[in-house]
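Input record, target 12 of the design panel.
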């Protein structure tokens, strides 16, 4: 029985994030009109192709994440400079950058994406909890190239509609799933990549086996990404052999004093 109680308690984190996100989006809409977003300089730029960078021979397939804090770990790194760290990630051969923009739970902010965009010519994922088309317009206006759709908080119709809306803006779409049920109900032609998050959202435990269990269930027309629980270069070799194209790594680099040096060291061992 306690397991269920724990599950409800932890699931509330996701529920809380979504509730707060609804308030945030409503506030943002009052402050900045869609017309204003469309006037932003970055709105006119052509986003980079996620596929091109992920499969490039001179890149590693790593999507390196800039993350200050998380609900499960608390503060991870409060001092790192986003421009400095993301440039170091890029120089070490990252295929893309993931930048958290959730304020309350992950300590992110809009300026983080703008700062990363200013100094990097590789794709940037806006990592957030997308529940409204307005946020997709924000991502485009801020210079992101990829948006994240999380199956656990969206209906199949929302995934399809948001994916189409994003792709019509030239953005790349990454769907995140945690299990087979989410994967099977969420597949849509309006996606570019499907990521398996090895973190169980019910209890925040991580298990890399989730990726190995689901890799062959993802249709081959999508890029395949493994997310979370990757702390060993050997794991990347095994995931590649299994059929993954990309590997999202955040905490492993961010928890060190020098995330840039940490990724360099990691890449040298792949």
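The sequence produced for target 12 reads:
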């Amino acid at each position: 029985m306690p397991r269920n109680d724990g599950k409800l308690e932890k699931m509330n984190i996701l529920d809380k994030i979504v509730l707060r996100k609804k308030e945030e989006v409503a506030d943002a809409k009052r402050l900045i009109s869609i017309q204003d977003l469309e006037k932003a300089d970055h709105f006119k730029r052509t986003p980079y192709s996620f596929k091109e960078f992920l499969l490039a021979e001179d890149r590693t397939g790593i999507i390196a994440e800039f993350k200050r804090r998380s609900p499960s770990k608390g503060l991870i790194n409060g001092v790192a400079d986003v421009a400095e760290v993301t440039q170091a990630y890029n120089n070490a051969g990252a295929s893309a950058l993931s930048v958290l923009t959730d304020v309350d739970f992950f300590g992110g902010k809009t300026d983080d994406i703008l700062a990363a965009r200013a100094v990097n010519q590789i794709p940037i994922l806006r990592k957030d909890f997308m529940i409204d088309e307005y946020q997709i317009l924000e991502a485009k206006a801020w210079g992101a190239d990829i948006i994240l759709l999380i199956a656990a908080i969206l209906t199949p119709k929302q995934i399809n509609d948001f994916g189409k809306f994003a792709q019509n803006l030239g953005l790349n779409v990454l769907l995140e799933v945690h299990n087979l049920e989410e994967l099977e109900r969420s597949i849509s032609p309006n996606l570019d990549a499907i990521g398996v998050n090895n973190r169980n959202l019910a209890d925040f435990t991580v298990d890399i086996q989730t990726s190995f269990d689901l890799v062959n269930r993802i249709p081959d027309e999508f890029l395949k990404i493994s997310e979370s629980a990757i702390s060993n270069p050997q794991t990347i070799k095994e995931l590649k052999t299994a059929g993954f194209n990309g590997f999202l790594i955040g905490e492993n680099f961010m928890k060190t004093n020098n995330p840039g040096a940490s990724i360099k060291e990691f890449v040298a061992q792949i």
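Residues 2-31 form the longest helix (30 residues).
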